[in-house]
Fold:
Amino acid sequence: MPHRFHLPPQLVRIVLLAGGIVGSYLVARYFLTPPSFGDYGFYRGAALRELADHQPVYAGRKACKECHDEVVLKLEAHEHKNLACEGCHGAGQAHSDNPDIKLAVLTYSHCVRCHEKNLSRPKWHKQIVSKDHYAGSKCTECHVPHSPNEVP
Amino acid sequence: MSLEITNAIAELTPHFEGYAYPNEATPHPLWTVLIVLYPYITGLVAGAFIMASLVRVFEVKALQPVYRLSLLTAFGFLLCAPLPLLLHLGHPERCFQVMITPHLTSPMAIFGFVYAWYLMAVLLLELWFDYRHDLVVWSQTTTGLKSTIYRLLTVGVTDTSEPALKLDARIGHILSVVGIPSAFLLHGYVGFIFGSVKANPWWGNVLMPIIFILSAVVSGIALCVFNYMVLMWLRRKLVDMRCLDVMGMYLFYALVVDAGIEALDWIHRVYSAEEGFQVMQYMAQEKLFYTLNLGQALLGTLVPLLLLGSLQLFRHKVPELWRRRMYFTSAMVILIGVMAMRWNVVIGGQLFSKSLRGLMSYKMEFAGLEGWLMSAVLLCLPFVILAVLVKLFLSEKLPSSEHA
Amino acid sequence: MKNSYSRRSVLTVLGAAVTGVLASPAARTAKAAVQKVLASTGAAKGYDPTRHKWVMGIDVNNCIGCGLCAEACKRENHVPEGPYYRTWIERYTIAKPKPGSGDARGAATVESPMGGMNGFKDPELSKDEILHSFFVPKLCNLCQHSPCVQVCPVGATFDAPDGAVLIDPKYCIGCGFCIQACPYGCRFLNPRTRTAEKCTLCYHRITKGLQPACVEICPTQARVFGDLKNSGPDDPIQKFYRNNKVQALKPHLGTEPRVLYAGFDKEVS
Structure:
C-alpha cells in the first residue's frame, strides 16, 4: 500500500507558494551577487582596483625633480627643504604629463599664507606681521623662496 | 564665533550656533522628515497588529468588531512603509542589494527580510486564513471585477467544510502568536538602528528600541480607535461602546507603560548628565521646544492620560456621547504626539553637532522629494489604500462570517 | 478532491532536485554570462593590499593652520564645493580663566571656516587672554573597530586589508547610516554621486607609491604617513610614535582609532 499524506489543500497551496518565493529569491541572489563580492571581505573586491585607478592631480616632488633637479637640489639644501613644490606652485600632474601646460604664477599671498603672524601658530614657526614687516612690497625683493635666507 | 559656510542654495541659509564639524554644516540634516515617517508608519502597523492579536491570542471578545479593521489597517499601512525609504535613498535603484548582500552586522540589513516576512508570512497569511471562507462565498455571490479578485485570492482553494474552517482558525491563531514577536521585530529593529549609534548620545542608548515598540503599540491602538470611529461615522452606524471602552482601556494602560519608560529615559539622562548632556538639553529647549513640550509631552502624553484615565475611573458616570468624544480626542492627540516623538528622536539627534559644541537647524522645503507636500501624500496614501481595502473586504453589503 | 502524495510524486520531486544539482555547472556558466565577468582581479595591478598597513599620525605641535592640506585634498579628490570635506582643520582657542574665579581654564572656542581651506584669521581673543591656541587637522580615524563599516547594510564600505577604510561608490545605496555612525564627523553624502564619501588615504596615490595629497603638501610635517608593515625605526611614523606621547579622539567609544594625535589639550573632541 503506498503511503499517503493527507495535507489540507490550504496548506499545500501556501507551502508551494512559499517555496516558489524562497526559490526565486535564492535564484535571484545567485545571479545578482556581484562577481568579486567576498574576495577580500564583505565587499566587492573589484572596488579596490576601481578606487586605485583614479588619476592623481598632484605629482609629488619626485616628479618635479625629474626635470627641475637643480632647483630641487637647491631647495633641499636650505630651510624650505621640507616644503612641497606644489604647495606654492600648485597641482602639477597635468604639467608633469604635458609640460606645455604651465603652472600658476606665484603671488605675495603664497608667502604670507604660512608666515603671517597668527596667535594660534606654534612659536617655533617664523612669522611676521606683513604690514609692519615691509608694507606693500613683494617678499621676493628680499627673500629667495627656494633658499629663504639668501639675499637676492 | 561665527561659522563661515558655503551654501549652494542661497535662500535656505541654515542657522548654526557654536561649532559643528564642517561636514555637518549642510542645508538640512541627512535623515529628513521621510526618516521620521518611516518609523511612524511601521509603528502604526505593529501597533494595529498587536490590537488584532488581542482578539486572536488573548481572546478579548469585546474587541471582535475591530479585528478585521485592525488587520486591514496594518496591511494598508505596511504597503506604504517602504516608500519613504525609497524616496530618501541616494540610489533607490540599488535597494535590492540589501537582500542580495545583506551585511549581517547592520541592523538596517534586516529590513528586506523582516518586511517580506511580516508582509507575507504574517499579515497576508493571517488575513487569508481569516478571510478564506468569506472569499469563497463572495467569489460565488458577486460578479465582475470583484468576483475575479475574490476568486484569485482564494488561490483555488474552495473547501469550506467544518474541519477546513477549524484548521483555518487554528492556523490563524498560530500566525497571531508568531506575529507578535514579528511585529516587535519589524518596529524594534528601527529603534535599534538608532539605539546602536554610539556616536550620537541622543540616540545611542539601550531604551531606544523599547521606547519605539511601546509608542508603536500606543499609536497603533489609537489608529484603530480613530479608524473604527471614522468608519462607523461614515456608515452612519452606531459604535459598539463596549468595544470602544475596552480599546480605550488598553490604550490607557499602554500609554501608561510607554510614558513611564519615556520618563525613565528622561530622568536617567538628567540625573547622570553624561557627555553631551548640556548641548542636548540646550538643543531640546531651543530647537525642540514645541514638538517636545507641546507635541509629545502635553498633547501626546498628558492630555490623553488625563482623558483616558478619568474614563477608567469614572466611566459609568460619563454619558456615551462624551465618552466617544473623549476617545476620539485622545486617539487624535496620541497620533499627533507619537509623530512628534518620532520627529524629536530622528531630527533632534541631528540638530546638535557630534562635536557637542554646536547646533544646526532644519527648515523643511515645501515641494521636492523630502518636503511638506511629499509627507502629506505619504501620510494620506495609507488611508486611500485602506479605503479600497475596506470597500473590498469590509463591505456592509457582503455577508461575513467573522470567527467567534 | 484531497491532495495526497504517493511514492511516484515523491520520487519525481527527488529526481527534479538531483537534476538541479547536476545542472549547477551550467547554472554557473549562465551566471557568468549574465554578469559579464571581466578577467581582472580585485586589487590594483602590481599591488598586494595584504603586504601593507597604512596609517597616519598627526603632530599638532607642528600644524600652522595654513590650510594647504584641506585645499589639496579637495582638488586631488574632486570633492564638490560646499560643506563637504574629506579632511579639515579645526582651531582651538582656550582662554585663560577669569582672574579670581578659581577655574583651572577658561572657555574653549572651536572654529573651522571653510574647513580651514583658506587658512585662519587671528583668534578673537588677545594674546593676554589666550592660554593655548592650536590647530588640529582632522580626517578619517581609521578605526580598528569601525562603527561605519559595522552599520553598512550592503557591504559598500569596508576595511581594506591595507588599513584604509574605503567606500565602493558603485555599490553604496546612499542610506547615510555610516555617516550617522561615524563619531568623528569625517563622512558626508556627496551631492553629485549621492553616495557616502570620506578620506580614502588617497588610495589611488598610495597604491602607486605616492603619498596622500595632504601629507605631500604639508609644509611642516604635521601629518605623518607610513606603512606599519614596511617601516624601519627611522621611518617618520615610527619616530613619531617613539618621540611623542599620543592620544586618540573619543577613546571612550571603543572605536580604537589608528590615527593618533600628539600634542592636543583635553578640549579637543
About this structure: The radius of gyration of chain B is 23 Å.
